[in-house]
Amino acid sequence: MEMLAIIPWVSGAISIITLLTLVKNMLSSGEKALAERVSKSEQEANARLAKVEQKAIEYDRRIQAIESDMKHLPDRDAVHQLQVTMERIGGRLDTMDERLKPIAATNHRLQEFLLEQAQK
């Protein structure tokens, strides 16, 4: 008789174990989907990170090229020195132009004289 008394308890325990297993499976199915979504998100994040790293490398190379080009350009003091020198040259050219005007006038008169002599 003891066996008949234990059977409802064993049956109840098996039902409880089955119910707990069913609940565990239901809850873990969401975990699997969540784990898949997290894995997919991590892969996408890694892909984006790789793209960002490639862009950073590209920008670094471009910056280095610009910096090397800028090293050859004159600095502020050199540009100022060039401006001063150009002003000086411009002044000398103006002076030379004033000095050449009388010579040009003389050459013009000489040409006119020679043309008059050639016509006679």
Major beta sheet, specifics? none
What sequence of helices (H) and strands (E) makes up the elements? HH
The number of helical segments is: 2
User: Nearest-angstrom radius of gyration?
Assistant: 49 Å
Mean pLDDT: 89
The structure class reads mainly alpha
In what range is the share of β-strand residues? under 5%
The number of distinct structural domains comes to 2
Low-confidence stretches: none
Cα(first) to Cα(last) distance is: 164 Å
- Helix content range: over 70%
Taken from the alpha-carbon principal axes, the silhouette is rod-shaped
Q: Please tally the β strands and state the result.
A: 0
Briefly say what this structure is.
With 120 residues, the protein is an all-alpha fold.
